[in-house]
């Protein structure tokens, strides 16, 4: 098989981190509220921002994917969506709160931890740490409705109440996966700690940790996994009936497409992304000097159907 490296269809499906910019005005409802400021970098779709159709951003199908930068001390007001939304922490420590009837359960998430925010559940997030938070957000529908705010300063909510996601003093509950409060139990079903997620070792030589899907958080929309790809691992071409996005978090990864006997390859670095359309044969290999960690989002629920084979 010949391998070529020239402008082609694959190029249009690769989003380079260095070619993108963070947008500090992605969410107009936060204008005028410095404590709500956050920046968004859009990779697939607008992800809750009204700024759809941005050049250099891949049109969404079953999900969106973006990066969010949250400065120290800032928060996002409590809101709800009609669909699931995941937060994957890349750097820093984030506090996420779920609200119900004036009570809030708060959990701290560190790097590679994830929460899948349930449909119509009020949730917000806050950076109480000493470094900015960088996270990947995926909304599990191509064109989500605008968020429905529950506690936001623009609604006249007291600033202290908005910062606590709607919990008055004494009504914040700490996260406890073994707790008996309904909010603790609901949140526990939707939090994934990276160190606790079982590693599935593929015969092709890499490992998968299921975050959303069978073995992880239950969902009927998309599957989300963390992949660990060691040096030298290479996987043969394979295809899916739906789209797949792969974002490199650490290391480097060569990805390729095959069509009519011709192969095209691109090397991805940290925070670069490739989007594989449904039915497109594709492969990957780690030709670097260190291991690669990648975040994989697949546009359907259910277990893995691909039989990965070593190249």
| CATH class value of the largest domain | Mainly Beta
**Spans with pLDDT under 50 lasting ≥5 residues?**
1-6
Shape assignment:
globular
Strand order of the largest sheet: 2-22-19-24-17-16-15
- The figure for the number of domains is 2
Classify the secondary structure makeup into a structural class: mainly beta
Tally of DSSP β-strands: 24
Number of helices: 2
β-sheet strand percentage? 35-45%
What name is given to the CATH topology of the largest domain? Answer: Jelly Rolls
Main sheet specs? 7 strands, antiparallel
Distance between the termini: 13 Å
Q: How does CATH name the architecture of the largest domain?
A: Sandwich
Question: Helicity range of the residues?
Answer: under 10%
List the helices and strands and how they pair.
Blueprint (H helix, E strand, L loop, with lengths): L1 E3 L9 E2 L23 E6 L20 E6 L4 E6 L4 E7 L2 E7 L2 E7 L4 E4 L4 E5 L6 E7 L8 E4 L7 H5 L8 E3 L7 H7 L2 E2 L7 E2 L5 E6 L10 E7 L4 E5 L5 E7 L2 E7 L2 E7 L4 E4 L5 E4 L6 E7 L13
Parallel strand pairs: 1-21, 8-13
Antiparallel strand pairs: 2-22, 3-4, 4-11, 5-10, 5-12, 6-9, 6-11, 7-8, 7-10, 9-14, 15-16, 16-17, 17-24, 18-23, 19-22, 19-24, 20-21, 20-23
